[in-house]
C-alpha cells in the first residue's frame, strides 16, 4: 500500500517570462577636428570593431553627421558614451582640443 501525496494548489500563476531592458543606441557625432584614423582607432579600441567596419562607420559619420556605433542597454550605453568622451584629442591634428561627441537615444 502506498501513501498518497497531495500537492498544494497554486493560487496565482507565476510569470516566467524574462523581462528585457529596452535597447539604446550610442551615436557618434561628426566634427571637423578628428581624422578617419582617429575614428577607426577609437572604434577598434573601445568597441572592438574591425578596421574595415570602423572605416565604414567613419565614412558614414562624415557623410551623414552621425553613426550608430552600438545598441545595448542604457547602463552599458552610458559607459560607452563616457569612454568616447574620455578618449582624448586626435594627435594627428593640432587644432583638435578634445574627444569626439556621442549621444544616447532610445532604439525604438
Overall geometry comes to: elongated
Low-confidence segments: none
Helix content: 25-40%
| CATH fold type of the domain at 32-106 | Ribosomal Protein L30, Chain: A
CATH class of the domain at 32-106: Alpha Beta
Percent strand? 15-25%
Strand order of the largest sheet: 2-1-3
Distance between the termini: 62 Å
The assigned CATH architecture of the domain at 32-106 is 2-Layer Sandwich
How do the SSEs run, as a string of H and E? Answer: EHHEHE
Mean pLDDT: 91
Q: Give the total of beta strands.
A: 3
Radius of gyration over C-alpha positions, nearest whole angstrom: 23 Å
Based on secondary structure, the structural category is alpha+beta
Work out the helix count: 3
Query: How would a crystallographer describe the biggest sheet?
Result: 3 strands, antiparallel
Amino acid at each position: 500500500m502506498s501513501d498518497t501525496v497531495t500537492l498544494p494548489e497554486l493560487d496565482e500563476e507565476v510569470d516566467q517570462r524574462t523581462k528585457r531592458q529596452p535597447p539604446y543606441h550610442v551615436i557618434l557625432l561628426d566634427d571637423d577636428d578628428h581624422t578617419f584614423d582617429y575614428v577607426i582607432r577609437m572604434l577598434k579600441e573601445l568597441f572592438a570593431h574591425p578596421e574595415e567596419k570602423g572605416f565604414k562607420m567613419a565614412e558614414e559619420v562624415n557623410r551623414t553627421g552621425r553613426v550608430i556605433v552600438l545598441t545595448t542597454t542604457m547602463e552599458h550605453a552610458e559607459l560607452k558614451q563616457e569612454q568616447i568622451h574620455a578618449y582624448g584629442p586626435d594627435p594627428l591634428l593640432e587644432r583638435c582640443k578634445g574627444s569626439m561627441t556621442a549621444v544616447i537615444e532610445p532604439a525604438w
